[in-house]
Design brief:
8 strands; alpha/beta; six-stranded mixed sheet; single chain; 7 helices
Amino acid sequence: MIKAIVYTSSTGTTEWYAKRLGEELKLPVFPLKEAERELAKGAEIVYLGCIRANMISGLDKAKKYFSLGLIVGVGLTESGKNDEEVRKANNIDSSLPLFTLQGGYYPRRLHGISKLILSLVVKSQIKSLKEKENRTKEDDEMLSMLQNGGEKRDEEGIKKVLTKLKEMGEVK
């Protein structure tokens, strides 16, 4: 049975998703570092981490300390669009449920090497989107988020995660 929601967040979007799940499931929510102090080694958790270059931050550490019941990666890409790439990059077994949800981009909340690397990636994405012919509404939304900062909260994605946990019998 899932004991807690545990997360790693750089700009607050993943934290928002974690707290949202915690509210719905009536489970405690902890940042990863705090969870290591508060929860027993091997406790079953839902883990959420931000996605950068298909890698979920903190996941390797969470795998070593906890039993993962479900994983949620939060990134810039539209929800569900890069699940298989994220699964492969993080070596997540196909039997472990994985969801990817679209988050946000807040460059002022980033620091150090993360800020530098992400700024280079974002500049490239902005250039590609600006040059793209026949941009979609989603393309324009992404361009605006990358240029101005912002986020997209996926309530439907949260509902899918909750449904899966209930199907698994992990929550009431």
